[in-house]
């Protein structure tokens, strides 16, 4: 990691701050760090390096929203999420950096499409029925498990599921906080088992953790003060650029 150029460290620093912001104030910003890390680092390494920073951010999300989780929703998702996680791990274990890099790009573009579609659906919420039952939970859960294992990019999938379930805002935030905290910790031994947490990754993350913490505190302060629409548009635009770069 000492071979990274100054611009790469600046990009990783921006991504680390965005991780903290995304966990406490701006859920839509979670895709941007994925694109930055996968652009600066080897694809498989980027997944592991970002995961440790996300876990730090999860701590702050739990501090802020832990009391609002709806546990029946989490339990309903669990079997399908596990299947998706195992499928994603198998893909990471056999895929090389080039394949994983393109997969991350495709996942990012798909997640952006999901995000835009979700917002269109949200504007039509009064006409859209809530999604219930094991079929919906299985589909969303499996996709979330796969995308979070491969690219740490399950945020839009889970957002779409909770919105489809007509989940109240506080319950949405609390349930999401617990979901990602549990899933991210579950992923650690799998990625460690294929050797993705080497000494350089740990040292790099140690240098970036203070920026995640700063972003989390800034998010807690900005949560009730920021207009999210402008930031979301910036995040989506930059992520599209990053995803296209990864793809080609």
Automatic annotation (TrEMBL):
Where does this chain mainly localize?
Answer: membrane
Subcellular location(s) per record = Cell membrane
Q: Does the keyword Signal apply?
A: no
> What Pfam family does this protein match (any one)?
TauE
User: Please, which domain of life does this record's source organism belong to?
Assistant: Bacteria
Tell me what topology the record assigns in the membrane.
Multi-pass membrane protein
Mind telling me which InterPro entries this protein's record contains?
TM_pro_TauE-like, TSUP
Q: Which GO terms describe its cellular component?
A: plasma membrane
Where, by residue number, does the polypeptide cross the bilayer?
A: 46-65, 74-93, 99-117, 171-196, 202-223, 230-247
Q: Which UniProt keywords apply?
A: Cell membrane, Membrane, Transmembrane, Transmembrane helix, Transport
Q: Which family does it belong to?
A: Belongs to the 4-toluene sulfonate uptake permease (TSUP) (TC 2.A.102) family.
| Protein name listed in UniProt | Probable membrane transporter protein
Origin species, per record, is Microbacterium aerolatum
């Amino acid at each position: 990691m000492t071979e990274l150029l100054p611009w790469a460290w600046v990009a990783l620093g921006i991504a680390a701050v965005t991780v903290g912001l995304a966990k406490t104030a701006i859920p839509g910003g979670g895709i941007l760090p994925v694109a930055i890390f996968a652009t600066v680092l080897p694809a498989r390494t980027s997944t592991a390096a970002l995961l440790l920073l996300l876990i730090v951010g999860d701590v702050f999300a739990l501090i802020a929203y832990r009391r609002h989780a709806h546990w029946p929703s989490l339990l309903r998702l669990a079997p399908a999420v596990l299947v998706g996680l195992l499928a994603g791990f198998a893909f990471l274990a056999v895929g090389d950096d080039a394949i994983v890099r393109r997969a991350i790009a495709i996942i990012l573009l798909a997640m952006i499409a999901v995000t835009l579609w979700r917002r269109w659906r949200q504007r039509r919420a009064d006409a859209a029925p809530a999604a219930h039952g094991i079929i919906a939970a299985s589909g969303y859960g499996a996709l979330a498990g796969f995308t979070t294992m491969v690219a740490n990019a399950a945020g839009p999938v889970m957002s779409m599921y909770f919105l489809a379930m007509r989940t109240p805002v506080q319950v949405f935030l609390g349930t999401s906080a617990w979901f990602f905290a549990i899933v991210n910790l579950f992923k650690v031994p799998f990625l460690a088992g294929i050797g993705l947490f080497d000494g350089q990754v740990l040292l790099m993350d140690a240098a970036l953790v203070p920026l995640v913490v700063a972003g989390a505190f800034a998010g807690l302060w900005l949560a009730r003060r920021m207009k999210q629409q402008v930031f979301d548009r910036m995040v989506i635009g930059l992520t599209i650029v990053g995803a296209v770069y990864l793809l080609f």
